[in-house]
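tool=predict chain=A
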Amino acid sequence: MKKLIKASVLTLIIGLLCVNTKAQNTDTKKTNGNSIKWVSLTEAEKLMAKKKKKIFVDVYTDWCGWCKRLDATTYKDQAVVSYLNEHFYSIKLNAETKDTILYQGIKYSYDPNRRINTVAPKFLTPQPGYPTLTYLDDKLNVVRISPGYVDGTAFLNQLKYINENYYLNMTFEKYMSDIANGQK
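tool=predict ok
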C-alpha cells in the first residue's frame, strides 16, 4: 500500500513538472524571449535624468484576477513589449506593498487602516480599481488614468495616444474615433 501511495505521489509530481515546463515554454514562444523591462519608481526617476521618456505605471494587487490576466496576455504580446520598451519606462506598482517607496523625494509607506501604500493614490482614480494603467509625461505629471483590463490592441492604442502626444490636443475618445474612421 505504501509503495502505491509513493508511486502515485511521484507520478503526480512528475506530471506537474511537465505541465509547468510546457507553460513556461509557451510564454517564451509568445514573446520570442523578450519581456517588458520593469523598473521601480525610484529607478525610473534616475533613468529620466539620463534619458527622457514617458512613464507607464501598472497599479495592481496580488489578489486581482484581471491583473493576472493582463500579465498573462497583454504583457506577453510582442508588439506591446517592443513598444513599451522603446518608448516608456514601465513600472509595476503593487498598491498594497508594505515596502517603503521613495518617489519625488518623499517616502511613502503602507497604511494599515486603508490597506494601501500611500503612494498608490497618486496613480489611481478616486474610486480605485485594479488593474489601473496610468501614464505620466516626461515631467512626471499624470496625463491619463485608465482603470481595468485591456487587450494588446487597445493597450497599444493607449500607448500611442500618450507617446505621440495626442493627449495634448484631443480626448482619447476622439482619438479612437479617428482611428475607427481611418484618420490615424
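The two ends are 69 Å apart (CA to CA). Residues 1-31 form one domain.
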